[in-house]
Amino acid sequence: MGPAGGTATSRIVQAQIVIGQDSSGKDIPVDLEELLATRLLVQGNSGSGKSHLLRRLLEESAGMVQQVIIDPEGDFVSLAEHFGHVVVEGAAYSSAEIATLAARTREHRASVVLALDGLDVEQQIRCAAVFLGALFDAPREHWYPALVVVDEAQMFAPAVAGEINEDTRRMSLSAMTNLMCRGRKRGLAGIVATQRLAKLAKNVAAEASNFLMGRTFLDIDMLRAADLLGMERRQAELIRDLQRGCFLGLGPAICRRPVSVKIGPVQSGAKVASATLVPLPSAPPEEMQALLHAELASAAADRPAMPEPIAAPAHDAAELVQRIARYEDDTETALPETADAEEGPGLGVEDILREMAQQRDCMFQPASTLYQMFLSRCRAQRVPSRGMDMAGFRRTFAVVVARLDRLDPEMKERILHLGTMVDDDLLAPFLAIARAAAEGPDGPDEDEIARVYGTNSPGRIRRLLEHLEKKGLIVTREDFGGGRTITVPGISAASVDG
């Protein structure tokens, strides 16, 4: 049975929507059929009206074509109230459920807002990549035309590697490239919006044939926008002088020559607070201080506690422990038969991993690079790797980097059991925190967490701790003296110097 609203052979009736007016007050239309075939790139600094433009485009085309919105900030969920979009909260579903929802979105031609504001940045990127990948991989009989809007596209298709995990970046970049380069034959018309053209991958931006360029102030972005619009470089200053809500449009779906567009009004509104100034409260300082401190201790005690970690299946932890033990036993079988016994035992897998872990900034390298380094050293030392795959290497190396061998076997097994609930890219810092909690109150400082996590960014460390806390693996308490106490349920507490 096909979805309500049409069959696979149905086509959109040629339709135009009006997104705004030019300087003389003349309506500027957008040809939807042409847009589906040629895609759109929107650029504008924060406050330029980029989200307002996307909202206008979506509102005017609602009911004419299916719409899928990747919404990292939750700005477009209000479309559900006015136009019947289905809001999918990314934080509420597993990866498999997200892929299934995307497949059903294509099958039933539902207009959907994928709201990602409940996730941290890296999880937002992974969730969007899974959703876009499932849209792209839908069976041929579900290739209905759809507008796929990706706000803050520089997050999902970065021009250069950033602080996110390399595997996540590649996964997301592949999904965005498929959307913009190969999506047209599958009925997917990508509309990508970015604050910075220089931060957006060129192979993603280059596939758009329509452009709406808003205000930007950096020379590199102005020059790139001017090149895309076919303007001379000395005219790039016009982009800096654009007013909020005004864009320069060009493309077969808009106009054959650059035209200035002032975006029209919208019906729905973003959930963000208005930037309009409002009067401050008139309460005297003494009264305000009393309001802030009233029953502070009891109010803090009433805040909900973090949930206990969900117990993982026992066999998962046991399998992990057995796998690590098997790799440790490689030491006994790694020597070639010609080895001289007087020189002592040769290197084993565990020794190679320890040598790698002792290298300065080893964790700042991509996991794929470390894995290839490990295989090369095994071959050079004539040590059998016993078929350790990438996933096994990452988790085993995390155990070594976190120095769990300093603990007694019972505590080590307990921590590894908790580690089965942690993603591979977060395992090393979690194990280091758990080890510190087990050893006593003098836990690792942020430099130690940065070392095992492979980052110099305090913000990334903060997001790591927030993510682990959301999963119920740790509980943090900070004071204004700069100290931070981390409790690992089932383990002791560790103080982390901020």
UniProtKB/TrEMBL annotation:
Domain of life: Bacteria
Domain Helicase HerA central: 22-82
Pfam families in the record: DUF87
InterPro entries with a match to the protein in the record: ATPase_Atu1862_pred, HerA-like, HerA_central, P-loop_NTPase, WH_DNA-bd_sf
Protein name: Helicase HerA central domain-containing protein
Biological source species: Caenibius tardaugens NBRC 16725
